[in-house]
Amino acid sequence: MAKERLRGEMRDIEIFLSRPADPFSAPVHTLQFERSLASFFGVEEAVAVSSGTAAIHCALAALDIREGDEVLVPSLAVVMSAVPVLYQNAKPVFVDCQPEHIDFDYEDLERKVTSKSRAILPVYLWGYSYDVTRLIDFAKKHRLGIIEDACQAHGALWKERYLGTWGTLGCFSMREGKLLSTGEGGFVLTNDAILADRCRAFRSHWANPDEPDLSYSRLGNNYRITELQAILARRQLGHLKEILSHRQWQAEFIRNSLGSFRLLQPYEYDHDNEQPNFYSPLFLLKESLGDRKVAKKLSEMGVKNSVGTFGLKPLQSWKVFDRDANTADLSVLTPNASRFLDRSIAISLLTHYAEPELNRIVETLRTAVEQSSKESNHE
364, 355, 375: which is closest to 295 by C-alpha? Predict the structure, then answer.
């Protein structure tokens, strides 16, 4: 099936490349891709952009987040989720997670709200959901916009509705390795036509072909997707459910193979309301092993993972957030996020992995954890 899909993509690309490039015509493939996105996700508007970071930046700009504003962001997130807040000269306010869940610690979230708070930016790390119902109630209470970072959550569900379609705007990445991938790229989803138009203007230097007098009246950016990327993305979107099914099988294979391995526990999500896409199958080590050594050892043994390979740590720990006067509250600690990441084994998978690759991951994981446990007992 994957080979057949690739042949279809190559045919579309060959047809596109056989025609003379016309920079003055409408981006037909991009428009078709956007319509397909809106249909698949069940929203009114979709805006294709050049990356997931660009998607978040467009969303912030569409909500007119500016200097002096605050955006509530999770400490448990990747740098790319919050850097766009700095692009808007606004202030990211870092919020702790729950002790054993990626969702916000709502007591900490309540403490961090001020009169300057304008938006909240949940990050569905590894393709798992927050309690979206509770999040929406919180945002309504404080009159906050919700920008969903669903860059790792293509096809993940909350109450049978796609993540990225619940908030004011939803943001996605199509970087290589994502379940919908074009090498680079991204998109924004919303049911607000005005916000969608602002995203379209912002992605193209604030150009407005419908009202030329309004063009370039504000700062924008070059966040356009290419027609080639749109061709690939639209083809892949047509196979996303098949890709999701395979990733679910991969995750179940790993979880079942580990069985009752006592040193690891599968991450517990809300089975009644949530269907993750299992972008990265997530496990938590027993407390005594929670010092990042296992994650690093696992990476050294050839199994990529978020903490050991990519150095994931609480967001405010990165120096980029320490160099700007707008992030003066860096001394605020997020102990739950720190402990959660110390215990996390979030396995990086590729869509083509079959049983041999998955068996290697399982056996390597067992070995790394058992070796670390023995070393810990001898200390």
Answer: 364
> Which residues lie closer than 8 Å to 31 by C-beta, 6 or more apart?
none
3-state DSSP call for residue 112? helix
- For residue 155, the number of C-alpha atoms closer than 13 Å in the C-beta half-sphere is 20
What is the Cα–Cα distance from 74 to 244, expressed in whole angstroms? 26
Amino acid 274 reads: E
Query: Which tokens is 166 given?
Result: 């619940």
Task: State which H helix or E strand residue 81 sits in.
Answer: helix 79-87
Q: Could you tell me the fold of the domain covering 2-239?
A: Aspartate Aminotransferase; domain 2 (3.40.640)
- pTM here is 0.92
In three-state secondary structure terms, 94 is strand
Six-digit token string for 234: 């639209």
**Residue at 360: amino acid letter:** R
Would you say 190 and 196 are in contact if contact means Cβ atoms under 8 Å apart? yes
Whole-number Å distance between alpha carbons of 341 and 90 = 27
CATH architecture of 241-378: Alpha-Beta Complex (3.90)
Residue 220 phi, psi dihedral angles, 5° rounding: -130, -160
Q: Tens digit of pLDDT per residue, the chain (379 long)?
A: 556 666 666 677 666 666 766 666 778 899 999 999 999 999 999 999 999 999 999 999 999 999 999 999 999 999 999 999 999 999 999 999 999 999 999 999 999 999 999 999 999 999 999 999 999 999 999 999 999 999 999 999 999 999 999 999 999 999 999 999 999 999 999 999 999 999 999 999 988 777 777 778 788 899 999 999 999 999 999 999 999 999 999 999 999 999 888 899 999 999 999 999 999 999 999 877 778 989 999 999 999 999 999 999 999 999 999 754 444 444 457 999 999 999 999 999 999 999 999 999 999 999 999 988 887 665 5
Say if CB 178 and CB 154 are below 8 A apart. Answer: yes
Residues carrying CATH 3.40.640.10, the chain: 2-239
- Which residues belong to CATH 3.90.1150.10 in the chain? 241-378
Proportion of the chain in helix, strand, coil states, percent, rounded to 5? 45, 15, 40
Residue type, 39: S
Give me the amino acid identity at 314: P
Report the relative pairing of strands 101-104 and 157-158 from DSSP bridges: unpaired
